[in-house]
Structure prediction request, 370 residues.
Amino acid sequence: MTKSAEIKTHREPFFHVVKRDDMPTYMAWLIRVITIAVAFIIVGILSSVVTGKPFIETYDIMFQGVFGRIFEGRTTMLWKYLQEIAVLLVLALALTPAFKMKFWNCGAEGQALMGGLASIVCMIELGDKLPYPVLVAVIAVTSILAGAVWGVIPALFKAWFNTNETLFTLMMNYIATQIIKYYVYIKGGGSNVINPVSYGNFPAVGMNDYFVNIMIAIFATVLMFVYLKYSKQGYEISVVGESQNTARYIGINVKKVIIRTMLISGAVCGVAGMMLVAGKDHSINQNTVGGQGFTAILMSWLGQFNPFIMVFMTAIVVFLRIGVAKVADASYLNSSFSEIMVGIVILMLVGCEFFINYSIKFRSKKEANL
Prediction:
């Protein structure tokens, strides 16, 4: 084939994807709000079709399932809703520094489990030996340390041997799960169940068992925002995330930043594990985190690494998860129906972010044939 024939048979793609750089901020947020509204409508319609209930009744069940009869002074369901937000939010906050540094930490599940394991060990072994304030302090310190250690192991390998952090942190999840299963088997006497422990539980405030967890989440949100935006370490994380070569050129120790950031990420995951064990379940098993470590990855990304936006995104996802589960229960549907609906909403939000950041450029027929 001659050179001219090769040129004539060459075909350019009919369209290509290009990164946007001109969309105003208000327009991006308008698109997000519209997407969320449409997603809620779609969830309501699908729920109505599957359950046979009217659209309005479907959402009434969802609101009652999430908030309870709050207008009648019954706020138990509301506090449970805030508790679910708190745990998922803390996990998302934990992942954010690593993701901003472009260290793909997919190990929040395992890091939280190890934090929870440290909590339950202290509650069982030291519960009747230490005064309550000292016991709670020991639980907090050991949970943070356990999560930090589990997080820093893949960081060390990444910093010194340039291993793949995604696979490494995922494998650490499975190891953590097996450690928890072994511990539960030993302490449960072969029953695979550890009965709720009465020592070391977070105190109830005003008959609310989840108040401490919610306060921890609020404090962690503010602290993470200040750390990432205003601290020197937050600046170093951003520079390393943009370009490691640039970071080295201006004198930043990249290995040190990677290790330090994963210590922080793992430590905050350990806090989430402590919240689940000492602040909620008072026990532990391999399903204590329940996959929230992976959902937190999406919350961090959809929140654009901004802790305050993550609060909003987490509240939406938890509302749908709890609310649609109540609709499923009312219609005797499988519990996975709720996860399907949440998955649809998340898929729409991810698609929304794609079109906010990128555009599709079509070529004319003439240009495509050049």
